[in-house]
Amino acid sequence: MLKIAVDAMGGDFGPQPIIDGLIAALKNNNKFTAIAVGDEEQLTKLIPPQYMNRIEILHTEDVISMSDSATVALKRKESTIYKAIELVRNGDAAAVVSAGHSGASMSLATLRIGRIKGVTRPAIATLMPTSENQNTLVLDVGANVDCDAKNLLEFAIMGQVYAEDVLELDEPIIGLLSNGEEESKGNEVTKEAYKLISKLPNFAGNIEGADIFKGTIDVVVCDGFVGNIVLKTAEGVADTIGLILKKNLKRSLISIAGAVLMRKVFKTLKVRVDYAEYGGAPLLGVKAPVIIAHGKSNPKAIKNAIFQAINAASSNLNQDIEDRLKKYKD
Length: 330
Hints:
Order of helices and strands: EHEHEHEHEEHEHEEHHEEHH
Structural class: alpha/beta
Number of domains: 2
Oligomer: single chain
């Protein structure tokens, strides 16, 4: 049975939503157990007695806050994220989920768990909603602000394998994010990356930002600087659309009547753009699944982040990434 390590104290709202999400995951899946890392006194109060046999508590009181520098993570060996990562490193857990300091999670996972053979830099991947009944996987969205062409090739390979093994997509299509579709567009790094990634199957070439949301591309490759801007912009646009709709619907009775008819459509839209539906962002390229959840994660987001961790840990993801890297990088 799989065991998942959960940083139970790292989120913006303390342990309550994290434990609630863990309980929800346990209710829906009886094939895993968990190790909740955090203050035992606080956590015990939040866990219903009937779930105590499936949740082990690893006590520690130190929590790396969002204001702390990621560089202190290696020194804070009693912190919740350090201990959660160590559980995976030592083989006591198959995967880790944290809504805490993302920089600390990334650096500890890379240095303590280690990278898959052939991976130069791990990348954070996230799912973006599209106009179709599917999502687009985008990476990197923040782990690496400066990348070379070989890094982008690695991201393409890792993203394609993740789409196959975890998202269960057949022959996922890759696109390289650029400022135009022509092969001649882009900076020197993306032009070189185009040549390297073109060796992979199902490479669609350069794509523009709007293509991310059309559902025609399965995996979008970019460096972490550009990817993080894309992610934050998309979140902002989704919030703005919601506010515009609300304000305009309040202006007339006709609009209000229309709102009743459109309620189901709005509900569907909210689901599609809600990060809680996807749970968290996998850190691809390390030797065990590490899921980085949003700091403001609610129980639903934590539940889905745990399901992501289970799916990744149950797959042959790491070996497939290593094999694919060897095939196309050598």
